[in-house]
UniProtKB/TrEMBL annotation:
InterPro entries: Cro/C1-type_HTH (IPR001387), Lambda_DNA-bd_dom_sf (IPR010982), MqsA (IPR022452), MqsA/HigA-2 (IPR032758), Znf_MqsA-type (IPR022453). Pfam families: MqsA_antitoxin (PF15731). It comes from the Bacteria. It comes from Trinickia terrae. GO terms for molecular function: DNA binding. Signal peptide: none annotated. Residues 90-147 form the HTH cro/C1-type domain. This is Type II toxin-antitoxin system MqsA family antitoxin.
Amino acid sequence: MTHIRAALQRKACPNCGSGQASEITYSDTQEFRGITLDLDGLRASVCSQCGQRWFSAEQTEANHATMKQAYVAKREQLREKLGLLSGVEIARLREAFGLSQKEASELFGGGPKSFNKYESGEVLQSQAMDKLLRITAFFGDRAIDFLRHGHGREQMANGAAPRNCVENRLSSSAAKPRSQ
């Protein structure tokens, strides 16, 4: 481990000690968080004497950024294929209700940093979360109020059918689709 750390910080070859190295740009296919990525523009140092390849701290950082960018692009393609809201659409919906990412996470669930991850493309929202967001967009502030105040819990605790609780709440609010 110390050998690798030292190689990251120096320009000399970690194998033969030669100070004659050049930087190359290359393409590779790698697994990242369970997704196969075709990566272009990766950077490495190569020793002119022995051919050893290593990565400086700067190259490692740049390669990680390239990998993350490719990962996010691949996730967005998957979202589109599955018919899920994009990260930009989720951010717009959240902002339309004046919610911070933290507030949205608390209101809709999914974990403390879920909306940050949905919007950045790091994580795909579940189909259930996607439907909840779409329902909220459709019913507007009434849906936000419903989620904030847990309307229907009391009726369900007293044996009312869940469908009736939701229908009663929405009809008592004179539910109209939110205009976009």
